[in-house]
Design goal:
Elements lengths: L9 H4 L15 E5 L2 E5 L6 E4 L5 H4 L3 E6 L6 H11 L3 H9 L5 E5 H13 L4 E4 L20
Antiparallel strand pairs: 1-2, 2-3, 4-5, 4-6
Helix pairs in contact: 3-4
Amino acid sequence: MEQDLCKNCIRARGMGKAVCPECHGENVQAWLEGPCMFLCCPDCGLEVIGGSFYAPCEQDDRKYELRIRSQSLTREQILAVGRYLKLPVLEVKKRLDEGRLPAKELYLGPAVSTKELLEEKGISCELYPVPPYGRYRVCRRKMEIHRE
């Protein structure tokens, strides 16, 4: 995996200590809500809202190839591959019989979710390229941006 982009994410790092740009007080409350940052100073009453604070994973518009690595699948697993990759089941079976493993290009969120669903069914699969977000699966601060 290339550099882990979660390491420097503003959502994972937290806001830390903020100083009021108006009165230089150190009691400023700062937080993120969706793509907006809020700063509120209880000392002088300043309130500021800034936009476009997206995590790297939220800006990722690459497509990832979800590759099935398992070659011998049960009937139920073949049905799951067809359902989750939105491929005709007969096409999935034909590809497996010919040794051509099914693959599908998806954006980051759907790719990770689909990979997890397939792995729950006992189907070995991988994403290529490997997403550079080491904490993506466990991060609860990211916004859910879904692209089809």
